[in-house]
Amino acid sequence: MNIILNPLQSNTKKGDIVLPAKSDLTGKENFLVVVANDSGKAKFDLVSSTEDLAVHVLAYGAAAGADAAAESPSENENFRAVLKGTCVPGDKLVLADPSTAADAGKLRKQPTTAGTWRLFAIAEESGVDGQYILARRVSERTTVVAP
Questions:
Q1: Residue 83 sits in the same domain as residue 141
Q2: What are the tens digits of pLDDT across the range 7-61?
Q3: Can you tell me the distance from the alpha carbon of 66 to that of 63, in angstroms, rounded to the nearest whole number?
Q4: CB atoms within 10 A of CB 40
Q5: Most buried residue among 50, 97, 111, 144 by CB atoms closer than 10 A?
């Protein structure tokens, strides 16, 4: 935000932000995280649903209560995030199912089975499970695969 053009934007900043971790985010670098409410305070947390609006990529994790940092990539740049499964360039990437705790915050190729998915990015390279996949963020939207 340009505080010269709009002085009411004086407490904003570009780039990464630092917030306390709501849960243990140790070792979760390059996972997608959400900004969560914890008794009126903003904290980073892992996703709990494939519908979560997880627009931050964790730069460094931390134990619960300690400071963690994350960055929200814009649509004019690519980024890397942890991949669940495989993908090829052009695949739509959505959040992996967080009901498997190890997958919370990973991206995966959008399934072709019936369901509702929150599209987050497009793959820019082929990837395998656990890889830091190169992707380009798109405007988040919910997509539906009909039965």
A1: yes
A2: 888 777 778 899 999 999 999 999 999 999 999 999 999 999 988 999 999 999 9
A3: 6
A4: 5
A5: 50
Q: Of residues 44 and 74, which shows the higher confidence score?
A: 44
Q: What is residue 7's three-state secondary structure?
A: helix
In which region does residue 76 sit, left (phi positive, over 0), alpha (psi from -120 to 50) or beta (all else)? alpha
Tokens of 143: 């997509």
Q: Is residue 44 part of a domain?
A: yes
Range of the structural domain that residue 138 is part of:
78-145
Tokens describing residue 63: 């134990």
Residue 82 scores a pLDDT above 90: yes
Q: pLDDT tens digits for 89-137?
A: 999 999 999 999 999 999 999 998 888 888 999 999 999 999 999 999 9
Picking from 12, 5, 131, the residue whose alpha carbon sits closest to that of residue 80 is: 131
Place of tokens 């306390």: 20
Residue ranges of E strands in 74-145: 78-84, 92-95, 107-109, 115-123, 132-145
Question: Does residue 62 form part of some domain?
Answer: yes
As for how many domains the chain has, the answer is 2
User: Is the Cβ–Cβ distance between 81 and 94 less than 8 Å?
Assistant: no
